[in-house]
Amino acid sequence: MATVNDPNRPPSERTPLDRSAWIEAAIELIATEGIAGLRIETLARRLRVTKGSFYWHFRDRRSLQQALLEHWREGRIRDIHKQTRALPGREAEQLRHVIDVYSASRNRKGILIELAIREWAQRDPEVAEVVAEVDAIRLACARDLFLALGLTEEEATARATLLYAYVFGFSLMHVERMPQEIERLKTRIAGWITGPVAESGQENGSKQGFFG
Amino acid sequence: MATVNDPNRPPSERTPLDRSAWIEAAIELIATEGIAGLRIETLARRLRVTKGSFYWHFRDRRSLQQALLEHWREGRIRDIHKQTRALPGREAEQLRHVIDVYSASRNRKGILIELAIREWAQRDPEVAEVVAEVDAIRLACARDLFLALGLTEEEATARATLLYAYVFGFSLMHVERMPQEIERLKTRIAGWITGPVAESGQENGSKQGFFG
DNA sequence: CGTGCTCCATACGGTATCGTATGGAAAGGA
DNA sequence: TCCTTTCCATACGATACCGTATGGAGCACG
Question: Can you tell me the distance from the alpha carbon of B77 to that of B86, in angstroms, rounded to the nearest whole number?
Fold first, then answer.
């Protein structure tokens, strides 16, 4: 929460802003207000400067959006690689960890940013491309963990897709239950997604205990 | 696609608008532009009238939003009951049907409206309440189908949650694959969600063949 | 014909925002 | 000291929107 310019600090000793300060503030803003709420003058008020500063660092609004998107893209790619780097033999554990850190209850702000950007992607093809790239990388990372558990390529792909879709879908839901009850529910579902699944047209057993 | 006022029709023989015409147009608009794009004068242009008409039918912008939300709520509740009314013995089939009709590939516009409203719910508690109600009803409907298949209450709840979260999560994703490949993937996942799942800490068999 | 009701057009004041133009303060080098 | 560069403030025109005020066309009805 270290804002670059403290309101209590006299203007004489303000830190000069740079592009990244604007981008950080923009990320904060879309988390609460959505992409439509990303206004230059609103941002400027938050940073305790005027538009003049913005138009020195950026060409226009679109330019900030592009920088914001690129910043998000890089951060997400770095993060998913970090979160899925598993020690050999602990892949199942790592999968459950991924579900946990990406779930809304532990990462509310991150989810809000995700939702804002994905809503943005619904009506901007350039954004949709970036989102598609991030999705592909995340899916590949999750898939690799399932592959390490001994699943076939097709199974691993499907399992990773289910995991990924579930996590985001759950964050979209507005559940009315006791927090404790929700946690039990989520633990159970996470067990299904990461654990053994019986093929529907097939004998049980062969593909079962692959994860321990 | 039956717009109330055809642009080619002379103004002398226009059909008078009513609230529902405005609400329908509003739904169309948020599907493409999001909640932030729901502007009175934009709507008026689409309906070939001016603001004067709007403010005769509605008190203000908020009033339209509330009517819109109520319209969405009623429609969704009616629809989920319709989609989950299964003949005895065909519950599993009905569950796969539900996944199909709510998936983005067959219901693009509906998904866009859902996303727009859920994004809206992130920053409006009244909207969040309505969304929570719709979610609860949909979950209950899906849960009932699982219960009819012989699952325990807790299992049915978890399975319904997984189904529901998956469907919406998948609609948020931007997948870069061949359509045919995606369909195979989705069929496989739908089979897992609606079909047998092995409990991770339990013998296989007892809860297995419940659906066929 | 006159009256009232329904539905919409027009005009207005007010706010928020975009992007531009331009001036100015601070700091560092020549 | 003077000049340049960096960073920001201020002022401006233009647009889009909100909500209100008010007039007016058309139709029903006595």
Answer: 16
